[in-house]
Design a protein that fits this description.
The protein contains 26 helices and 16 strands. With 653 residues, it is α/β, with parallel strands linked by helices. Its main location: membrane.
Length: 653
């Protein structure tokens, strides 16, 4: 009994001791504030550890994206820069996710792999295409996977290392996750609620101030300055995470200032009406993948000339709004006569905005009795073309899924095979045809020895890999040039009037070739060029508009793809209230309408025009018309797009 009594006394004493230390003992033992028993200040410790983890993670993200240790350090050494805000936001995300997952610091196993992977992808995109990673890029992730075979063929060892790294990383993550669940105590309900009470309101407030279209006093005090007109500077100044967040709203197009039915009614109407010749000409438009003149590279000689036919027939140049990729954005302008300049930077209309019947050349020409057909030897889902072409009014779209087997040249369907298909379908049609064809053969990357039987030689003071890569590109360009020659020779023999338009969508992604030849300082051209001449050098591609009745159009100069419908229909003898009326008047004022540049027919340049307080009323009207037909109430349809009046469908995006 004594032992029991003594034991009881001991237990009572211990209980009393615990009772006396109830508050501090609760904090030490309760994993709601810290799971390491016996340590003091667990709340402060947990917060400091979370901040330290967030700081290391954000630094790693910026280092990966920037690829520059000194530049990354400089970003964080400036106390008023948004880097410190990013660290706090990441700490709040980690704390909130800890509450959801139920264990301290386990959120790192989700946040770190996800954000570091995004940083790596962002660095690669910036390296190869010149643009940062945008939220909307995930809308076409399927395209990236479709191009993986070409990338693997170009750099097999890099691809193998990436696969090994991914497998090893996932294995380590699974092991660490399971180990953490076994070793670290669960958080109490009280601790989880406390974390959520702290993190959720603050994160919600942060989200509320990230709409770049509205002013935020708090965001301004935090030195988070949306630089949406220059995305490279936007990411450099605000950091990868905050700039990425600022771009989330780009999926929404803001209503232009002054938009109303009265504003649309006030836009000047020309006396141009829709009309076509009695003998309707066939119209064939070929957008040639990455077609450009490679002899423009400094110190490069290619023998024989890879593009003699284009050189002989050239009408002018097309000013591409993109560099090295984003083909769909050039298509959008060339088919609709609308401009990417009036849409959020980094957006892709094919992916985001075309959600209902949208006026295009196909819509108009089909209403005039044409068979509107699109051809692309790739898959129909690429760039969402299957859906978009239907909304543009094409009668049909032949792609890899519906075309007959096409002979390949190198790894992709040849330009010669696509030309055969165009000729065959045009000859078989009793009705006039409008063809829009997008080639595939000369798509990058341009791995050395792409073709086993090259017909050209390249002389240049550059490395062997770059020289062989350039040879692969030159061979593809020569094949595209021969395709144009064949179309022209075929059309010359036809009795039916025929108009052929041929142009490159953008400069090719030649990467190191540009750097080694001195054409560019980096693998890609900057979004914001130092001068209009530099912008023209890096964005002009050859343009031919030719008729078997009148020959090639001449002296067109450099034009935005949005003006191509005007030049094509004018050459064909066709008129339309918007495509030759409104765009014709715009063409008299500007030949290039780009996000960063306006260029008049006489060569006068206006850079950063969209940031100026006073904007040319003609540009304002252009933007209002485009918004009205794509997102608004289509007040302009009866006067500018009469062929769409009976086919109006409410926008669903």
């Amino acid at each position: 009994m004594t032992r029991l009594s003594l034991g009881g006394e001991v237990r009572v004493a211990k209980s009393s001791k615990r009772a006396g230390r109830a508050a501090p003992q609760f904090l030490e033992d309760d994993p709601s504030t810290g799971y390491l028993p016996g340590r003091t200040w667990p709340v402060v410790r947990y917060g400091l550890i979370s901040l330290a983890i967030a700081a290391v993670l954000v630094f790693a993200i910026e280092l990966i994206v920037r690829g520059d240790f000194a530049g990354t350090v400089s970003f964080f050494l400036q106390p008023l820069k948004p880097g410190w805000t990013t660290i706090v936001v990441f700490a709040l995300i980690l704390i909130g996710l800890d509450a959801v997952l139920g264990r301290s610091h386990q959120s790192l196993m989700i946040v770190a792999p996800l954000t570091l992977s995004l940083a790596f992808v962002g660095h690669q995109k910036s390296h190869y295409l010149g643009d940062p990673l945008y939220p909307t890029d995930f809308l076409y992730a399927r395209q990236i996977f479709a191009l993986l075979p070409l990338l693997v063929r170009d750099r097999p060892m890099t691809a193998l290392a990436m696969v090994a790294g991914i497998v090893a990383g996932l294995s380590l993550l699974v092991y660490g996750w399971r180990l953490w669940r076994r070793k670290v105590p669960s958080l109490s309900h009280k601790g989880r609620i406390a974390r959520l009470t702290l993190a959720v309101p603050l994160l919600a407030f942060f989200v509320s101030i990230m709409d770049y279209a509205t002013f935020s006093w708090t965001r301004d005090r935090l030195q988070i300055i949306p630089i949406m007109w220059d995305q490279k500077e936007n990411y450099a100044s605000n950091g990868f995470a905050l700039a990425f967040a600022l771009n989330v709203p780009m999926a929404h197009v803001s209503v232009p200032a002054g938009y109303s039915d009265k504003a649309i009614a006030a836009i000047g109407r020309s006396d141009v009406t829709a009309s076509v010749p009695d003998e309707k000409p066939d119209i064939i438009v070929v957008m040639s993948e990455s077609f450009w003149d490679p002899t423009k590279l400094p110190g490069v000689t290619i023998t024989p000339d890879p593009i003699p036919n284009v050189r002989a027939l050239r009408s002018g140049s097309m000013f591409s709004p993109e560099f090295g990729g984003m083909t769909a954005n050039i298509e959008f302008e060339a088919l609709t006569g609308f401009s990417n300049a009036f849409l959020p930077a980094g957006s892709i209309p094919y992916q985001q905005y075309v959600r209902a019947p949208t006026p295009s050349l196909a819509t108009f020409l089909k209403s005039e009795g044409y068979q509107a057909r699109a051809i692309h030897p790739g898959t129909n889902w690429f760039w969402n073309r299957g859906t978009v072409y239907a909304d543009f009014g094409f009668n049909d779209f032949k792609s890899e899924e519906t075309l007959p087997p096409m002979k390949k040249r190198g790894p992709l369907a040849s330009d010669a095979a696509m030309t055969d298909e165009i000729i065959s379908e045009a000859d078989a049609s009793d009705e006039p045809v409008f063809f829009f064809a997008v080639s595939l053969q000369n798509h990058g990357p341009y791995e050395p020895n792409r073709y086993y039987n090259p017909t050209h030689t390249v002389q240049a003071p550059i490395g062997q890999w770059a020289r062989d890569s350039l040879l692969s590109y030159a061979e593809g360009s020569a094949d595209a040039d021969r395709g144009l020659e064949r179309l022209v020779e075929w059309a010359k023999k036809r009795s039916r009037p025929t108009v052929i338009a041929f142009f490159g969508d953008h400069l090719p992604p030649l990467g190191p070739v540009y750097v080694e030849t001195g054409f560019l300082k980096d693998n890609v051209a900057p979004r914001k060029e130092a001068s209009a001449d530099a912008a023209l050098l890096h964005h002009e591609t050859p343009l031919i508009i030719w008729s078997n009745r009148t020959g090639p159009a001449r002296d067109m100069g450099t034009v935005s793809p949005a003006f191509l419908p005007y030049h094509i229909l004018k050459t064909a003898g066709i008129s339309h209230p918007y495509y030759t009326g409104f765009l014709g008047e715009m063409r008299e004022r500007y030949r290039v309408v780009d996000r960063n540049l306006l260029l008049t027919p006489t060569g006068e340049a206006t850079a950063d025009w969209s940031r100026q307080k006073e904007i040319d009323p003609a540009i304002r009207d252009f933007r209002l018309l485009q918004y009205d037909m794509m997102f608004g109430k289509r007040h302009a349809a009866p006067d500018f797009f009469p062929e769409t009046v009976d086919k109006v469908v409410a926008h669903t995006s």
